[in-house]
Amino acid sequence: MKILLFNCGPFASTMGGATRMKNLFLGRGLDITWADPVYYENYVEELEPAKAKGVRVVPGFKSTPNRLAEWLQREKHFLKVAKENPCDAAIFCNAWGTRRARKWLKRKGVPVVMDYSDLMHAFHSGFKRVLLGKAYGEALKEADLVVTTARALEEEAHKFNSNVRLISNGVKRSFYAKAKKKRLKHPNAGFVGAFGEWVELEKIVEAARLLPKTFFYLVGDGPKKIGDAPKNVVLTGRVTHAEARDYAAGFDVGLIPFAKNELTDAVCPIKLFEYWALGKPVVASHVNEVKRIAGNAVLYASTPEDWAHTIDEVLKDKKLARLLGQEGRKTVREYDWRALGKQYVEELEGLVAK
Q1: Residue range of the domain that includes 117
Q2: Whole-number Å distance between alpha carbons of 259 and 40
Q3: 34 and 161 housed in the same domain
Q4: Looking at the DSSP assignment, which residues form a beta bridge with residue 115?
Q5: What DSSP assignment string belongs to 312-351?
Q6: CA distance 239 to 217
Q7: Is the CB of residue 113 less than 8 Å from the CB of residue 348?
Q8: CATH of residue 103
Q9: Do residues 95 and 197 share a domain?
Q10: What pLDDT, in 10s, does the model give residues 173-194?
Q11: Which end of the chain is more exposed for a tag (fewer CB within 10 A), N or C?
Q12: How confident is the model over 284-311, as pLDDT tens digits?
């Protein structure tokens, strides 16, 4: 089966959308064309060499620093890719700049799938929020199939389309089984991920002040900068995906300090499954999708005092930490990328066969 993947981020990226698509579809004997996007911003993108058998990557390029120009160039770029790369089904991950390609594919009778993994308009405000909301509404309505990663996204998609499936994010357990634990200072707690505006790192820094004998490892980089942090906060900077895994393997407690809002309530955090694959107890914010998936297998916190108290509780109660880690390892079996990818491919085969 020939699959066209477009507007899912750069193929070499380790960010969420690209990571999801690669783990779902690579290594399954599919003939994949991956169209990298046109962009003018390159925030928090960590690029690593990426090669895969059966994947043809069509390069994107950097646009002029103007959102309208970027949109027009994306439209032209993806339409050209669609015309030059015959496929059995096409999947797009972001509605921005894909309208012409989607409509051309539909006219040719190619099933078009929207992989809906973020409430994109919630990243913005004002006119841009309204514009993106309309663009996503149109894309959701036109898709032959909408695949979502979270319950909130599934409910939103059902407002526009009756053919909706929830296939969550996951983890490559075999990759995490090969982790080489970093030699870190203990006791500790840590976060791995992009330092985006949706991550409340400031609360973790304040929790660190309340627990001066506990080390806090913040692994990653991004637009949100850490101010004056105490000495027990360790900032690693940007690291490779394998190094991030190895840092997490050395954590006593894994953290998911997301802000609580409509955006994060619709996010299925990959890091939850990564911590679980390593057998780590997890403390997270009270975000809806984590609570839906994890229930009582995760502990929750909101204020800096909550974070400090809950982290300290897990560090001191070894039995609790062990039980949380064991429950996570058990649950994460349902979220292996191989099983999720099989389910996704079966959905595509059903579309193509119609």
Answers
A1: 2-170+337-353
A2: 27
A3: yes
A4: 147
A5: HHHHH-HHHHHHHHHHHHHHGGGGBHHHHHHHHHHHHHHH
A6: 13
A7: yes
A8: 3.40.50.2000
A9: no
A10: 999 999 999 999 999 999 999 8
A11: C
A12: 999 999 999 999 999 999 999 999 999 9
Confidence at residue 170, expressed as pLDDT on a 0 to 100 scale: 98
- Residue type, position 149, single letter: T
Q: Are residues 39 and 76 in the same domain?
A: yes
Q: Are residues 115 and 242 in the same domain?
A: no
DSSP assignment of 133-165 equals: HHHHHHHHHH-SEEEESSHHHHHHHTTT-S-EE
Q: Assign 122 a pLDDT band (cuts: 50, 70, 90).
A: low
Identify the sign of the CA torsion 9, 341, 95, 4.
positive
- Residue 343 token pair: 């389910």
Mean pLDDT confidence for 44-70:
74
The answer to whether the CB of 283 falls within 8 A of the CB of 301 is yes
| Phi, psi of 120, rounded to the nearest 5 degrees | -60, -40
Could you give the number of structural domains in the chain?
2
Predicted TM-score (pTM) of this structure = 0.91
Phi first, then psi: what are they for 28, rounded to 5°? -115, 15
